[in-house]
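#struct-help
A.M.: can someone run this one for me? Single chain, 586 residues.
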Amino acid sequence: MVKKILLLFLVFAGCFAFGSAKAQTYYYDNIEVDIFVKENSTFDVIERQTYYLDGSFGYFFRDVKLKDLDHISNVLVYDSDGNLLDKNNYDLSYKGNNLHIQWNFERRIFNKELKFWAIKYTVHGGLRFFKDHDELYWNAIFENREVNVENAKITVHLPEGIKKQEVEVWSYIGKPENSRTSYNYNVIDDKTVEFLEQNIEPGEFLTISVSWPKGIVKKPFLYRNQIIALITLLIALTIPIIVFVRAFKQWSKKGKDAKINKTIIAQYEPPAYAKATAGKPDNLVPAVVGVLVKQKIEIKEIIATVINLAVRGYLRIKEEEKGFLVFKHKEYTFEKLKDFNDLKPFERKILDALFKKGNTVSTSDLKNKFYKEIKDIKKEIYKQVATIDLFEENVEKTRNKYSIFYIITLVLGFVILFAGIMIINILGLAPILLTSAVIIGVSILISAIIGLLFSWQMPALTQAGAEAKWHALGFKEYLHTAERFRVGAETLKTFSLFLPYAMVFGVEKQWAKRFADFEYQPQTWYFPAAVYSGRGGAPANFSEFASGFSSFSSAVLSSFSPPGGSGAGGAGGAGGGGGGGGGGAG
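D.P.: on it. Structure tokens below:
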């Protein structure tokens, strides 16, 4: 018995739910539009929309397209009794390039009833101006509808000074891809043109065109949005110019290298210390030469330092072949040979990081680990450079000092660009503000990049540093085109000693070609796989050795690196011009 009662209750509940969920049915019984053209080039639009409603409804809305006009102002909304609504009783926002107007009323069930509302707004920049006439070209009945418009009446009210016979009228109805000319209009008098249509289907425009002689309506020099756009453009152009001038002056005053008026010629030794206390000065090590020439440190400077230390006897590098057949690959092992307390701080830092877990490590041991030490290694290299009279100040600190302002500016640019876009979209503000935020945001980003580029150039060479750089570039010339200089003067020892410098300059392959005719001799610092395993098949010459050595460079680079887009008014069709948009009820 209880089950039967429960079942009966569920049936009644289902019926009630079905009744309350009655399908919504509506269409536009009538739309009347009055357009009042003013002599100041604006025009007022009053839309009176009468809905046929059957079902549950709680709001009406209208989306007015902002295409081909400047902006819309003075929006007013009237209820079904013709009373002007307070601004708190309707929603006004921008959705994309549409002005969204929505009246929310008390939701109730309508039983085949008519309900009316009206909106009024002023259009700026919606008229078209030609050489011999002016024109109102307006989509009076909007296309984004899901329902029919049974009856439509559009009345255009023209300003004083126009004669009836001077007015030209056209009307177009249909969809943009398939519109047709309509002749359901009448020029009633000198000031009034009336358009009548029936049964306008979903997705169809009703576009009207009314033209009159020049001189009646005065076109302003600029509209509001054009003024905003002009100001935005001026700001967007001014910011980068100001930043460029400021940064250039800063660089000219404190970032210029000392002058040296000497042509670069081949040098046969690396540059030496700018200041030597006694005896023959020591050569600058490869990493320091890299900073001297490029004013930055890349991983190749660290790799070159490892090779330089191997050549100097602090470690040994061995190449091994692992796996078999298609799974065969090369593995490289670093073997510590002696204590390195006598080395420069940055060299010790590199070897400490290299042999952190023992006296023998492989490239696979270092992968995804060694890169964590690179930041501190770079700091030590910059400190080493600062101890030599090459730059006016520490390269890293100089760059940081001048770049901090532009980094903050860069962040500000991103905030304006992305946060501004989000806020404007969330609040439904005017599209012109969105455009301005994007333009100014991009301008600030460009300005920050300009400033950062100058900041990168702020480390200034001293006179001694300029001399050393001149010498280093001459040394690069020698390594790059060694066959042109001192033919036969190179020794096998020279190959290894200068190889780290060639790597820093990116000319190791050209340097190796100089030794193509030298028979390969085993090196104390690097053992190819064939030599290390005792299988024979050692490189035939140093050029072949260097070719195989490039695989080592690639493997180490991978191990050391962190894991890793004017027409006439009578021509046209439905959908052109301003107005249009959408509307509906819900």
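A.M.: thanks! Confidence is low (pLDDT under 50) at residues 1-8, 10-21, 565-574.
D.P.: also worth noting: The CA atoms of residues 62 and 583 lie 4 Å apart.
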